[in-house]
Amino acid sequence: MDAKTAYIDFSDGFDINSRKDWCEIVKNSVAMANSGGGIILIGAGDDGTPSGSDVTPVLDIDPAVLADMIASYTGERFSGFKIAEIDKEGVKIAALLIESVSIPMVFIKPGTYDTDEGGDEGDGGQQTVFERGAVYFRHGARSEPGDSRDMTKVVGRELEKLHRSWFSGIEKAVKTPAQYVTQPVATMSDAARMPNQSDYGVAIPDRTYPYIQKEVVHHVNERLSGKKHITAHDTLCVRRIYRIDESKPQFYYKSKFASAQYSEEFVDWLVERYEEDHLFFEKTREQYRAR
What we know:
Strand order of the largest sheet: 1-2-4-3
Structural class: alpha+beta
CATH class of the largest domain: Alpha Beta
Low-confidence stretches: 178-198
CATH architecture of the largest domain: 2-Layer Sandwich
Number of strands: 10
Shape: globular
Order of helices and strands: EHEHHEEEEEEHHHHEEHH
CATH superfamily of the largest domain: Schlafen, AAA domain
Mean pLDDT: 80
Distance between the termini: 46 Å
Strand content: 15-25%
Number of domains: 2
């Protein structure tokens, strides 16, 4: 399968002084946010191998600068992204992790650059990366203006989130003792799923974290088939001792308005740690108590 898909894009490099590069990064970021989220890997070729370009200037970018740039073209103060450093074959790659938006962003002015800057032959004219009034989405490996099918997908994605939140609220209400039952509150923070790009040690926001904590506990216990029974406290100890929240983005994701969510890889990792050492959870608890 081509590594470049609707949810992942590769860029050999990024010149922070290039208007063309900024327009391209804005176009792809907006298209991915409109399409449910994604990731842009800067410093990697189309085959996924490191390009060797220096991505330090990208990693040093203040997220507010990118937010301002997107706002200047869309009128929306979108800040649902993170810039992270990834080690691939001993080479640094910059990852731009992009969350989804509920309402697609529209470009309110065109993204243009001088053809001389872009390296194109010409007489100093301008090249347009995206047009005013366009709504961009990911079509395979490309960011392109959307059509009715894209809008249908947006509506379907939001309905799926709403339905999941309803069922989650109903489940909580059913399990809560009668004297504490309140009206379930539907949120729009649940995420759809997408295969994890684990080769880069990073997962894609809103796509690869299907489990909340109690579901992690359930799946680990199910996988261990009675050999070991863990609790939510065990996962807490593991998170704190192994700094899962900070150092393992492929395992853990926490958006601004939702509970923490975990990937299938985290479940696999917990099971593997137990198989390697049957006292793994006991030792982790002891380390946590000793802190």
